[in-house]
Amino acid sequence: MSVMRFLGATSRDAMRQVRDALGDDALILSNRRMDDGVEVVAVAEEAQSSMVEQAEDVAVPAQAGTPSAEASPAPGQDRLYAEMQAMRELLMSHISETPRPRNARPGVRGVLRQRLITAGFSARLVREMLETLPDELADVDADDPRLLAWSRRQLETRLEVLDDEATMLEEGGVFALVGPTGVGKTTTTAKFAARYVMRFGGDDVALVTTDDYRIGAHEQLRIYARLLGVDVHAVHHEDDLEGLLSRLEGKRMVIVDTVGMSQRDQRVTGQIARLGGAARPVRRLLLLNAASHGDTLEEVVETYQRASRDAGAPLYGCLLTKVDEAPRLGAALDVVMRHRLRLYYVLHGQRVPEDIRLAEAPALLDEALAVGQGSPFTFDEGVLTEMLRPTASGQGLQALSRDLLAQRDQLARVMETLQRSVPGVAWLDAAWRRRESPPAIQQTWLEEHLAPPSMIKAWHGAEATGLCWSGGKPRGMDWAAPMIPLDANGDVLPLAWPLHRWPPSDTQRLTLARRHLGSHWHVFARVPDADVRQQLRESDSPWLARTRVQQRVWHAGERLAIGELVDLAEPCGQHTCRLRGRARRVTLSRLPVALAETDADNLQLWIATSHDSESGRRRGVYHWLGHGGDALDIDMRAFVYRQLEQDDLSRLMRSAWQQLGASAPLDCELRVYLAAQLAALALRMDLSEDGWAVDTRPVVKRLAGERKRRSPDTLLHGLMHLLTAHAALSQAA
């Protein structure tokens, strides 16, 4: 049992001792500050596995014919259980029982949790967000701008707002404003109508009121209608709303001001049902008072959504009223997010038409997160923890149900982020859903989507400017690797095009890539032949090709193997690259060479040597031949570094191919297509530091079910689980 204690002057020093003694995959049991430094208690991963295996061995029942009551204890059983108990007590003492000093700085999660709770967001949403906090943000300062940017992105992906007001108003329709008493429906009706009148005039607008309960409601709407120059109609309880809407069919925009009713009023269902019987569809917009308590808003949405579904269609969207009276917007936005309502407008005063604005997610979230001080009505960390712990079986089942719904929404957001940010992911999702289809359907889909017109259009849409050429059949695969596009930075795009759908010769493929795909950069798995190099030189297209140390080239009048020229290469830069999930320091060297003594090609031999970032130990040497134009030196260096980081693409593709072979019977072309796309996406996700990658990596990594460090292999495994779960939950929904 390798539970060990390390003491260092700083946390960094103590963690270095842990890595040296137990490796990168050690489990940290505790980390606390002492008078003489920092104490870290850790256990080796091998010891954890060994302990579990031993525990399983001693739990195996006695063999048949040997009475279990008479079986003697396994050797070391008492010691094993004692060590397990000691480990459990150690964990509990350091995690649960040891109080945090009053003057200790709260961690990033604690600060972020309190900030969101103070802003009014629910404990459920905060917990869901913190579960996906990226590893690279777990130890930053609480005021690090990256943390705030991540928080805003997480909230923004959950808040659905109206994208195009002009189109919505131009299309028109019948809109019914519904909601509790006093939420501001009549004033909002006038403001909503004013948005249309200011664009298209008042001739095609009609206002309708069904409010025959409130004294003066009709007259108030008539005053607004006269100011706007629009028609107004009143529907009494005994009148037929359906008939009136039929007579107003010539009006492009009809806005119905309904009776305000409490969400606990039994008549809500009947009132909403009245709006569902018209031949012309009625779109129900729910008004929410931003100054109301979160529990009240939750009850309002649940009641009106249920009544609306019973009437034939869910709520069309919502509006936030009285924003100027709300001390915190978090609760209202939280309810809108969790119920996946589209937010149309925000209202912040009584003036018509001034006090209404289009809902814009960034501005609303900035306003919500700008809350400075706490409130006696917000939870502290201890109360929040108690709230999240189920205390009875019924509560536990409800929590499980909520968690399943939250997981479904979370996976949907991750897929939406990937599809929005990475070209080709939508195709990957569509292809994945064909895995279990009959072979004929799989082949039909492939013929439709992998035909040249479709692929050329997709590559242009992805703004692909380069091409990663197939290297034939990777070891362990039955099919040749597809051709994969590169973006302007040299990053692979998950848009695979199987090799057999390309022309047969390399010169024809290069012509297709240049003329129809706009490919400028080229990466080859082997050195291209003379005809292809001639075409590349004539078009001044930069290229790079992996080569072996046995490859012979000409330098200074001699024909030598590349391995003999390494010491002659001139160093030209250093860079920190990410190779197979680890940071490596890479030294780059170059040497002018030629493939033939009289060759006109001005080539460069590029040699990249990787070292461990901490120990300096050499980890690998990589060789390329490529374009030697001086004008592109800086670009070529960056390009070499990027292709070094993506050198693992073929291995990842093989891994995906093998995992796909273990599932449902697949058309071989669909299998190689999926393998290439998955490998490209996993690699791109691991290397990118853009917001979409930072936000989606924690979820994908967690889906892999692995506690190991982030790596392309882990992300590849997680992506397969993501696609499977998303498809299944979407179908179930």
TrEMBL record:
Pfam families assigned: SRP54 (PF00448)
Membrane-protein topology: Peripheral membrane protein
Keyword hit for Protein transport: yes
Localization, UniProt: Cell membrane
Record-linked CDD domains: FlhF (cd17873)
Name of this protein: Flagellar biosynthesis protein FlhF
InterPro entries reported for this sequence: AAA+_ATPase (IPR003593), FlhF (IPR020006), FlhF__GTPase_dom (IPR047040), P-loop_NTPase (IPR027417), SRP54_GTPase_dom (IPR000897)
Gene name per UniProt: flhF
Family under the similarity heading: Belongs to the GTP-binding SRP family.
